[in-house]
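Reviewer 2 asked us to include a model.

Predict the structure of this chain.
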Amino acid sequence: MRVPISHGLTNDEVRRRLKSRTGEIADFIPGGVADVSTDWPDENTMNLTIGAMGKSVTGKVELEQGQVVFTVELPGSLSFVEPMIRGALEQKGRKLLA
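Predicted model (structure tokens):
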């Protein structure tokens, strides 16, 4: 699942905001019980590992000029929650950048 979010910020400012708010990412996951770990393999990519509902999901956030792209790889057994996760990423992703 790929969710782009447009913004008018510099990549440096986006990076600063994401790093200062990574603790809020767990709130994106429906149900409110998620364990999220992050790392930055390069200055424009944040990797995510999300544990929720007994499953582990990986994803990344890529900083592009004028947009941030959230990519999450959902296993088939969790495909039913894709609309909820997409909606949460769109809504709360904007709040992370605000």
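Residues 2-97 form a domain with the TATA-Binding Protein fold (CATH 3.30.310). The beta strands are 2-6, 34-42, 45-52, 55-64, 67-73. We have added this to the supplementary material.
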